[in-house]
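Entry 12.
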Amino acid sequence: MKSTSRARQSLQKFSLRAVALSAAAFLLLLAHAQVSHAQQQQQEDPFETLRKRREELSRRAIEEPQRRQIEEGKLVGRPSSASAEGRPPLGASSKPGVVRVVSPEEKKALAHMERGLGYFSKKQFERAIQEYREALRLMPDMPALHNNLGSAQFALGSFEEAIESFKRACQLEPENAQAHFNLGLAYLKRGAEAEAADAFNRAAQAYLVTGDEHLSANRLKQAEEAFAQVNRIDPGFYLPYLKLGLVYEADKRYPEAIQAANEALRLQPKANAARLILGRIYLAINQRDKALEQHQKLKDAGETDKAQTLQKLIDAPASDSQQRTP
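Predicted 3D structure (tokens):
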């Protein structure tokens, strides 16, 4: 798709600018001596909201791959894994999000991981590393464990070891945006700016893919968080604002959708998909004149298909236009 191609081209323009922008997030995390799961309290400051969101995303980076890997007794996405071969399914009656342990080794591994998380939260990083290593001995292909191990190594200042752990997490789960981001932070600490830029670039791509998957499944909160992460990596990139506009439109948060679409246009005046979003929203809030203005701008830009799409919505009865989906 052309939009996907343009997005990937734009993402390739990340470089030292992405490193500089991500340095702020790095310093925030470093202040808490942790990368992927921060749990200590701090005095309120201007970055408090960002800190809390990073904590939540980090927690999910641990929990979600765990669920995906052992739910229903198979390693999802890794069909060639020896641990998944020949294992009978546990049935289709399990509830979504429920982890079903299928072997004593996996049960022991998860127990070690839980203890590791507990030690990490108490800043007992050496003991956390010991627990993570024990868990990895039992489940060596679990990305979240490598990510957690890297976090504890990072907290101890063992950046080379942390880099290797984060790299392994990325190898096992290339779409793990959190692991790529953490890898970028570790590279940044070592002064490897080119490698850090590449890691942040991969993190942004992974967050965009994840956000699109959530948006397609109407998981709007998760989609918003994924696209917002791209904004934090590079606030000057237009595409996540465009995606957030779609999220807010679907959630009927029209003022936020208008703001996001306009920001996308400010950063990239040729992002005409944002004008289609604006046109739909203006129709939804009964501002037909503004919708017609966006329609004209689409025509002037040569966006015939988008202009025709918006024209059909403009011509549709009001009751129909209020029920359309993005």
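Annotation: The two ends are 18 Å apart (CA to CA). The mean pLDDT is 75.
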